[in-house]
Design a protein that fits this description.
Strand order of the largest sheet: 1-2-3-4-5-6-7-8
Largest sheet: 8 strands, parallel, barrel
Order of helices and strands: HEHEHHEHEHEHEHEHHEHHHHHHHH
CATH topology of the largest domain: TIM Barrel
Radius of gyration: 20 Å
Mean pLDDT: 86
CATH class of the largest domain: Alpha Beta
Number of domains: 2
């Protein structure tokens, strides 16, 4: 049985989400009736910015569909769009394809919902157009707004491969804008793009752990990586690249409620993101959007304290800078293993962790043998997050 990343849907939640929402959207009833009647109560307008050279007015909070599946997931997404969210990100790897099917379930039930969002797809295989075709079929649409292809290592040849893929997709009308996603060597990748293809990519989905550090994490090495990252982020923005944030800690902040999520989101936007992408998988989290006040970009003193307290609570979290991988004498993908540990240990997404490990193409037993007792990764980690013992721990999950 596949692991579900949703909480059980109560009758109270179902009735609440199908009787509230946004008449401002002027959506009609679903043909099937399965996802709920159109809502009748005006929704608060979420503030929007401009997503780089796409010129799209993306809401400051956007929807990461990594945890939704089946019909309940479609209803949760519907409720979020009814409240004004207008950017959605999904991938075939999320919930074993369940995420794409949930998003597609909403679009197929009422095609007007597809027209209300800027739709982003993550691509893993730029040499396989069938990957995009399969997702388009499941989504019930002939195009997406941007394809965000993985770009985690600063490998010059990768730029040409991505450009060939995305130029072909644009020519065939399957995608409108170009993009990439990075949660690996972010500074190296951004600097390579700025050097080799500064005018090519329209949108970037970037892990934002490096954007701000709590006092507990500000060692010289960590602070230097953070300052370099912020400089690179602003350089991308100057080139017209729209910035979507991920892995900023937003998931944990959402689960703590508006009092924590609002200042966290404002801090991420202040650091350089155009929209804060976060996974929302309960109706209570959707309703939290009603409580947000993001009209002012300035954090109050109380909000800055809340941000600092929240960051201190995750002081040992991986920065996703890939310094460890570059230092490994065995060329192991240490940063990917630490990301998988996050999914497995912190989030409890065991199936997702297993799928991500399988994508690395590693044998767990061979990985454990290859990683010896050296401290190369531990010596360079800016926040003391990684070690040989941590690598062995991840390997043990999949033996």
């Amino acid at each position: 049985m596949s692991e579900r990343m949703n909480e059980p849907c109560s009758r109270r939640e179902f009735l609440r989400t199908t009787t509230r929402g946004a008449a401002a959207m002027s959506f009609g009833a679903f043909a099937s009736g399965a996802l709920g009647a159109p809502t009748t109560q005006p929704a608060p307008a979420l503030p929007a910015g401009v997503l780089g050279r796409t010129k799209y007015p993306a809401t400051l909070i956007s929807y990461g569909a990594i945890r939704i599946e089946d019909q309940r997931g479609s209803r949760i997404l519907k409720a979020a769009i009814d409240r004004g969210v207008n950017l959605v990100h999904t991938s075939a790897s999320y919930v074993g394809g369940g995420s794409v099917r949930a998003v597609g379930g909403l679009f197929k039930a009422d095609k007007r919902y597809r027209d209300k969002v800027f739709l982003c797809l993550k691509s893993y295989h730029p040499d396989r157009e069938s990957e995009i075709d399969d997702m388009l079929r499941d989504l019930g649409t002939d195009h997406v707004d941007v394809v965000l292809t993985e770009f985690h290592k600063a490998t010059p040849d990768r730029i040409g491969i991505l450009q060939a893929q995305q130029d072909s997709l644009k020519k065939k009308g399957k995608v409108r804008h170009t993009g990439f996603v990075c949660h690996g060597d972010m500074n190296g990748v951004i600097e390579l793009i700025l050097e080799k293809a500064p005018d090519y990519f329209d949108v970037a989905l970037i892990a934002m752990r490096l954007a701000s550090l709590s006092d507990e994490r500000k060692g010289d090495r960590a602070d230097a990586e953070s300052q370099r990252f912020l400089k690179n982020l602003q350089a991308l923005r100057k080139q017209g690249v729209g910035i979507l944030s991920m892995k900023s800690g937003a998931k944990d902040a959402v689960e703590k409620g508006a009092a924590v999520f609002q200042p966290h989101a404002k801090a991420v936007l202040e650091a350089g993101a155009d929209s804060v992408l976060t996974s929302i998988n309960t109706f209570d989290q959707v309703e939290m959007l009603d409580k947000l006040d993001l009209k002012s970009p300035h954090l109050s003193p109380a909000e800055r304290k809340a941000v600092a307290d929240f960051q201190d609570s995750s002081a040992s979290a991986c920065l996703m800078c890939a310094t460890c991988t570059k230092a490994c004498p065995q060329s192991l993908p240490v940063n990917d293993l630490m990301r998988i540990r996050l999914y497995h240990d912190t989030y409890g997404w065991h199936d997702h962790a297993r799928r991500e490990f399988a994508r690395l193409g590693l044998d767990a037993a061979a990985l454990a043998r290859a990683c010896g007792d050296c401290a190369a990764c531990a010596d360079v980690c800016p926040v003391g997050h990684v070690s040989a013992q941590a690598v062995h721990r991840v390997a043990s999950y999949f033996v």
